[in-house]
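CORE FACILITY INTAKE
Project code: CF-77B
Contact: R.S. (postdoc)
Sample description: multi-component assembly, two entities in total
Requested service: structural model of the whole complex
Turnaround: standard
Below are the sequence entries exactly as provided by the requester. Do not edit them.
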Amino acid sequence: MSLKAFHIAFVIITVLTSFVIGGLLIHAFLKEGGLWNIVGSLAAFASGVGLIYYGKYVLKKLRHISYL
Amino acid sequence: MDIPYTTTPREDTGLYNAKVGIWLFLASEVMLFGALFSSYILLRVGADWWPAPRSILNIPIGTFNTAVLIISSVTVVLAWASLKMNQLSKFKLYQGITILCALIFVGVKSVEYTEKWKHYEIWLNDGSNYSGHIDVNGKHNPFFYTHNKLVSEGVTEITFTKDPHKYGDPLPEKAAGGGEAHAAEAHAHESMVIKTEDIKRLSAFVPAHSTYFAIYFTMTGLHALHVIGGALVMFYLWITAGSWFRSRPEQFTNRIEVSGLFWHFVDLVWIFLFPILYLM
């Protein structure tokens, strides 16, 4: 597996983790309140969406490099 | 005699040797960290009480460090892609940013550790216990004090400044008008003088404090050592890039790919560590 393939896997895992963290912070907001929880949650979801677009950009930029 | 398969793939594996080597090494690393993650899970599910990490650890700082490592993963790939496109100056820029990110991560982590090492929990003979900061003989926020150390130094009393929220307790529930939160704030930073003879146990937030801090420092400390190791390798590749890339470009590009694979593994470990230790 090349660095390209590992990077794509890394981005996918990070996207999923961002959404999980966003969910955890929403849960914390509903339980405890707090501005930082909701801001953090929105930031986590935004990061997840941003990383999806970044992943597509990387796939395009590195299309000539092997996955092996 | 040249070492074979530093640039060309072997017929049997389809990969150059260094790539096979790094994946074998990463497989052993997966077992190492896997054992620690398993230990964490077993310790946690087997514990009668587990502290609420959100009341102990600094989440904004942890989030910042997570972002720093994600950025470094991007720059390490851009550095490698630059070499593939024969752009040495761009490689140096991206590799430099990656090393800078590693230094920032370690610097921030050391600040976090320092905060923990001068933060205390105290258990008194009357059964009460508090978390906060101490003053000993005019020394403000000293490191690593214990009850035994107080006795051996002949300290007769300390000043203890209590935290607004005791160590490990969940943060106050959302209450109408924020009554509970206001009550907690009212007791924030309350100081009291405690005699050494009234102390049952005194411990900073160090591995010996509790199972939680033992596993926290083991996992984050081992991860930080990996960050330092990776940064040293990348720094060596950075300063030798010019001559190496000009004489053996393919071999050097492969070395950068291998270091990038290691760096991605280190970042991936943190991606799992952060929510487990800081948020859950």
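Facility notes:
- Residues 249-279 of chain B form the longest helix (31 residues).
- Chain B is about 60% helix and 10% strand.
Invoice: internal transfer
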